[in-house]
Amino acid sequence: MDMSLLQASLLIGTGFLAGIINTLAGGGSNLTLPALMVMGMPAEVANATNRVGVAVQGLTALIGFRRHGKLETSDTPAILLPTIIGGLLGAVGAAYAPSTWIKPLLLGTMLTMALVILIRPAIVAPPAGTEPKKVKDTPSSWWGLGLAGFYGGFVQAGVGFVLLAALAGTLRYDLVRANALKMLCALAFTLVALVLFIMEDLVLWGPGLILAAGTMVGSHIAVKMAISARPETLKWFLFVMTLCGSAAAMLSG
C-alpha cells in the first residue's frame, strides 16, 4: 500500500498518542483505527493492522515496567489463564452475536467504569500500602479476569479499562502494577489475534510497522510517566480516558 508523507506522519502521531493512552489507561485504538481507515483500509484490515502497533507497544511497556521493578511475575500464569479462556469464549460469542450488541456493550462498560472511579475510586486505586492478593486466594478474581477476557474477546475496544478493574479491584494491585499486568494480558490476546490475522492475510505490514514505531515511543514515555506520577493523577487520567471512550462509543457508527 503506497503512503504519502502526510499519511505516514498521521500514523506515527496517532500511534504515539495511543501508546501513551493504552499504557496508562486504555482506549488508544479509538485514535488508531480511524486513522487507518482514513487511509482507505476496510474495517477488518484496519483492525488486523492495528494489532501490530498494539503488540509492539505491549512489549515496549512490559520491558519498561520490568526494568523499573513494577511487573509482578509470581502470579502471572494464574492471571493469564482465566483471561485467555474468557478471551477465546468472547471471540466465539462475537462470531455469532448480532453486531448491534457491540456498541451498547462498549458504551455501558465505559460509563460504568467512569461511575466506579467517581463513586468508589478505591476499586481501581487501592490505598497506598495495600498488599496484592493471589488469584488462588481470591475466587472472585478468577471470575473478574474471565469476564475481562470475555469482554476483550467480544469487543476488544476499551478492554484495558476492564482489565484494570479486575486487577486493581479484586487483586488489589496499585495502578502502576495493575497497568503493567494489564499490558501483559492485552499482549497475550493480541498475539493470538495477530497470528490469526496474519494467516488470513489481513495485515498490511507497511502501515502497521509505521504505526508501531509511534506506539513504541509513546509507550516508552508512558512507562516513565506512570512510574513518576502520583496515584491520584493516574486515577484522574483513567477517568478522563473512560469519558473519551464513552464519547467515542456514542459517536461511532
From TrEMBL:
Membrane topology term: Multi-pass membrane protein
Membrane-spanning ranges: 79-97, 104-123, 143-168, 180-198, 204-222, 234-252
Key words, A-Z: Cell membrane, Membrane, Transmembrane, Transmembrane helix, Transport
A cellular component term, taken from the record's GO annotations: plasma membrane
Family annotation (InterPro entries): TM_pro_TauE-like (IPR002781), TSUP (IPR052017)
Family per record: Belongs to the 4-toluene sulfonate uptake permease (TSUP) (TC 2.A.102) family.
Protein name: Probable membrane transporter protein
Species the sequence originates in: Photobacterium gaetbulicola Gung47
